[in-house]
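In practice, a research group might receive sequence data for several interacting partners and want a quick structural hypothesis before committing to experiments. The following worked case mirrors that situation: the sequences arrive first, and a predicted assembly follows.
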Amino acid sequence: MNVIADQCVVPVGVGVSVSEYVAACERVLVEAGLSHQLHAYGTNIEGEWDEVFAAVKRCHEVVHSMGAPRISSTLRFGTRTDRDQSMADKVESVERRLDREA
Amino acid sequence: MNVIADQCVVPVGVGVSVSEYVAACERVLVEAGLSHQLHAYGTNIEGEWDEVFAAVKRCHEVVHSMGAPRISSTLRFGTRTDRDQSMADKVESVERRLDREA
Amino acid sequence: MNVIADQCVVPVGVGVSVSEYVAACERVLVEAGLSHQLHAYGTNIEGEWDEVFAAVKRCHEVVHSMGAPRISSTLRFGTRTDRDQSMADKVESVERRLDREA
Amino acid sequence: MNVIADQCVVPVGVGVSVSEYVAACERVLVEAGLSHQLHAYGTNIEGEWDEVFAAVKRCHEVVHSMGAPRISSTLRFGTRTDRDQSMADKVESVERRLDREA
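A structural hypothesis for the assembly, expressed as tokens:
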């Protein structure tokens, strides 16, 4: 089962700057070999369910190991059985509609 | 690693009524033996990380098997290393503060 | 337009204990006269769109005024035009299905 | 109060293809003159609180007017009082850390 997810990890109890923890999660995704794309409020991740969720778990382990005593994450995740769809497909299907009107 | 999660499963492409799919997810949690509590916009789940996320995956599998071609879920999930905290503890720590003022 | 929402406010930069900030948000909802229900990972809120979102804004203002330099919130929110549905209706429609099987 | 938000609108009861509704929300953001960036599981939005949330409301109104009887949205939104930060700043602060290691 393929999944497209959008992860946002918020370390709590380590001050206001969280970029080093987000960067550590990006490295987890690179090491996992998963397609991913950072944006201003999370990271899109695409892949086989078990690989994506293993990476999500690894993010929590790594952020705790960096000293964060508490983490509050949110994840959107979508699966579909009617057809294959990549992260790029999702963006393109919206942009194609917008272009048609322009 | 213990996790407290809050799951909201939205089946897409099966009409406006989604209660039968939410009920199926509740049964998945019962069968998994996980502590859980339904509310008006999701379900709190508590347990060992791997057990909680196995149940989340099972929910997607079951909802697809019921005929939903597409599912868009959201999950909040929190872990902490500083101390143990249950779902009941979280609610009580807020209610204790509110009671103090009353 | 009526909305059922589920709010989770995470103050960042004030340490690991967040219950006093969540309690302050509960007071905002009481003062606004909005139906609401605290759970282990957020608070269900029900009401007229503008009133619900005014309360959400007030929560951010109050939590900042208590000293939190940064807040990361998540909100699920649903509207429907096909029929009226309360928070209690949503829970009951799932529980009715579960009871039928028991 | 400035806010950086990440919106994901899921129309329910209109079939599996949702791109026309997401495109309609993009047009709402363009018309509102708000900085925004579409990604594979939502749209980043940046601006003054009242303007951002007026656009979020307008999205629900427009998607209902297109025929969707039910909408389930999720929003992440962050505010901070310690300093100004744009969507671009957030991404750059993570990328700078990743570059340093490369």
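Before designing any experiment, note the following. The mean pLDDT of chain C is 96. The interface with chain B takes residues 4-6, 8, 16-17, 19-20, 22-23, 26-27, 37-42, 44, 46, 74, 76, 78, 80, 82, 87-88, 90-91, 93-98, 101 of chain C (CB under 8 Å).
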